[in-house]
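User: For my dataset I need records formatted as: sequence, then structure tokens, nothing else. Please produce one.
Assistant:
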Amino acid sequence: MHTEWLHDDEQRIWRQWLRAHTLLTVELGRRLQPHGLSLPDYAILVGLTDAPDGRLRMSELAHIVQWDRSRLSHHIKRMEQRGLVERENCSEDKRGAYLRITAAGQTVMDKAAPDHVDSVRASFFAGLTDEELATLDGVTARVTERLEG
């Protein structure tokens, strides 16, 4: 099998994308620290706050955050210990469980979300023109569509 290596522009753009992603992830995580949250904590809490009644099946949450169930389960245990979430038995499926955001988790989200939005705007969107946003929208939509296939 012959591999066609990335040409110079592809290599530059790919490495630039990886660097931007890393820097953005570090910055957004740093800005959540004063709230006692990591970026993965925040992603889980967003999934729950977006759900009806603030709860989701563990399998649904695993799909949203794109984690395997084992990784999610370990992370959830740590969040439960901090009082941010709680498991709830599923009456329809005895093996399944729901995860619900707690009042304490909602309080943390109420405080963290405005700061997170400000961080995203400042770190990602600031300085981009409407045309650049439209291009970025198209590119990310196409890549996402291809990967979700």
